[in-house]
Amino acid sequence: MSVLGIRTASVRRRLAAAVALTATLLGASACTSDGPAKPAGSKYQDGKLRVLASSELTDMEPVLKAAKAATGVTVELTWSGSLDAADQVSSGKADGKYDAIWLSSNDYLRLRPEAAGKLSSETPVMSSPVALGIRPQALARLGWKPEEVTWSAVHEAVAAGKLTYGMTDPVRSNSGFSALISVASGLSGAQAALTDADVKSAQPKLKEFFAGQKLTSGSSGWLASAYTKRGDVDALVNYESVLLSMNRDAKTDLTVIRPRDGVVTAHYPLTLLASAPAGARESGRALTDYLSGADVQKTITERTLRRPVTAGVPPAAGLSAEKRRELPFPGTRPVADGLLSSYENELRRPSRTVYVLDTSGSMAEEDRIGRLRSALTELTGTGGSGPGQRFRDREEVTLLPFGDKVKKVLTHVVEQGNAEPALEAIRGDVKSLRPDGGTAVYGSLKAAYEHLGKGNADAFTSIVLMTDGQSDDKAKDFDSFYARLPDAQKHTPVFAVLFGDSDRKELKHITELTGGRLFDATGVGVPPAVAGGGSLNGAFEEIRGYQ
User: Fold this and answer.
1) Is 392 within 8 Å of 344 (Cβ atoms)?
2) Whose C-alpha in 160, 366, 495, 502 is 20 to 30 A from the C-alpha of 518?
3) pLDDT score for 533
4) How many whole angstroms separate alpha carbon 360 and alpha carbon 523?
5) Could you tell me if 97 and 49 are in contact, meaning their C-beta atoms sit under 8 angstroms apart?
6) Measured between alpha carbons, how far is residue 32 from residues 29, 236, 528 in Å?
7) Confidence band of 435 (pLDDT split at 50, 70, 90)
């Protein structure tokens, strides 16, 4: 018998016992499938599968623990946004670093000709369509019958000022990209793959639709948390499984609607890379055989509230069996990128961002100031930057460097269709940053909120705080200031970056108070699942999805 045959027989003998273990393992806390996370893309070892994965798949880790018991395969997960993963695969950066990718969809990756030879095989594991989750009071106000709602009806409600919603960033999250395609297809009336003409014809309605977007995010998890805390946003556009999980886990009471005119569905294909060694390909086949089994599919749908892909396995309770038309995906990469670029620079509400930057004397150590200049300059992109690779058109960018006090307030607005003057001015301001003085974190944050309070209220507002040390001023003064802010200003989150010798406890307090998130740029013992990934460039780039 061949090695593969022996392995397959072993998998079958161990499968029944492992399925019995699954229920126990599902109660385990989320972690990598073999204890602490390993460095991203560590050297291949027999019996391990190094996987670049969508972050929403954290809920599959207990299932992967059971898979290890059944197959002997340890899955080493590294989290990534879908479009970033597509870049890594198509550019060859994933070769030798990962053995497989596991994204919500490979549709965007398939639009890139250079990726064609990079993929070996793919196996859908589960599915979840894009849906609308709406609060009971908003549903009653609109008088909708959930089974009859269309994307056009949603657009009409938003355009009339009767509905607001949140959605993840399409450039960094596949749930946001799928939602964007769903809305564009529904409002354009496209009967086949989206074209430039379809997108152009739908643009006036799309601009009206995105005027109602009040929450944005780089991840479904943070979006769900922010939505629950806000209480003043009517709905969320996200995967059906995310919305139903919110009802179950966060005790929300959303009515989940799959619009009648169609949806875009994620199928979560576990995809082996052509560069994977033979042992990894064998491990991948054993893992997909296990995940496709009827008993495991039943466990997956009940745990994740995604739909099973194996015939004969019923979906979990609460998942309607009523069919919906699958809306067409863009047929070419230029159409997809054009849709993303249009969303970034024309359709969505503009952004106002204040970068509160520690330029105290300690930033001279270890060339920290040089790393800060490099990370900020990267955000200005180049003339040929694609979607998500530079500050957006219509974005107001403020640099607020501080030491003992705020040194300057430098504001630039990126002009639509003529971005380079503002981007060049930002580069000049960044180059002029100099390290000296103390570390007045809280006073500088107060100045940032005061600055944002004077401008356009109809924008996504956020504050990015980067500090390499502990604050010289007092947290209680800022807490009192924040408590007195108008409710609308309290919705501005602070995204803090842990860097150098900054105080994790201090920054965590700030992000929890303001509804933001902490990103780690220290590079010390940072596992792949940590926001920011350990570098200042990575932290700043990831924060862009939340602005």
Assistant:
1) yes
2) 366
3) 52
4) 21
5) no
6) 10, 29, 10
7) very high
Question: Matching CATH topology for 129-265+323-337 and 350-546?
Answer: no
Contact 83, 180 (CB under 8 A): no
Q: How many other CB atoms are there within 10 angstroms of residue 115's CB atom?
A: 19
Longest dimension (CA), the chain: 75
Chain segment 342-355, per-residue pLDDT in tens: 999 999 999 999 99
Beta bridge partners of 466: 357, 497
Question: Which pLDDT belongs to residue 383?
Answer: 61
Give the pLDDT band (50/70/90) at residue 13: very low
- Cβ-based neighbours of 8, under 8 Å, separated by 6 or more: 286, 289
Class of domain 129-265+323-337: alpha beta
Q: How confident is the model at residue 528 (pLDDT cuts 50, 70, 90)?
A: very low
d(CA 166, CA 92): 34
Mean pLDDT, residues 325-350 taken together: 92
**By the 8 A CB rule, do 482 and 512 touch?**
no
Per-residue model confidence (pLDDT) at position 113: 87
Tell me the Cα Rg of the chain: 24
Query: In sequence order, what DSSP letters do the residues of 435-448 get, joined into one string?
Result: --S---HHHHHHHH
**CA neighbor of 369 nearest in space, from 428, 427, 435, 429:** 435
185 contact partners, CB below 8 Å, separation of at least 6: 151, 194, 198, 262, 264, 327, 328
Identify residue 267 by its one-letter amino acid code: H
Please, how many CA atoms are within 13 Å of residue 491, restricted to the half-sphere of its CB? 22
CATH 3.30.2110.10 fits 3-124+269-304, yes or no: no
Edge-to-edge strand list for the sheet holding 494-498: 410-413, 396-402, 351-358, 460-467, 494-498, 517-520
Locate the domains of the chain by residue range: 3-124+269-304, 129-265+323-337, 350-546
Q: Which class is domain 350-546?
A: alpha beta
Amino acid letter, residue 420: E
The alpha carbon torsion through 477, 481, 482, 484 (nearest 10 deg) reads 140
∠ CA 45-47-51 to the nearest 5 degrees? 75
Closest CA to 445 of 405, 389, 390: 405
Q: 389 or 32, which is more confident? A: 389
Secondary structure of 25-84 in HEC code, one letter for each residue:
HCCCCCCEECECCCCCCCCCCCCEEEEEEEHHHHHHHHHHHHHHHHHCCEEEEEEECHHH
Task: Report whether pLDDT(17) > 50.
Answer: no
**Token pair belonging to 391:** 């500050």
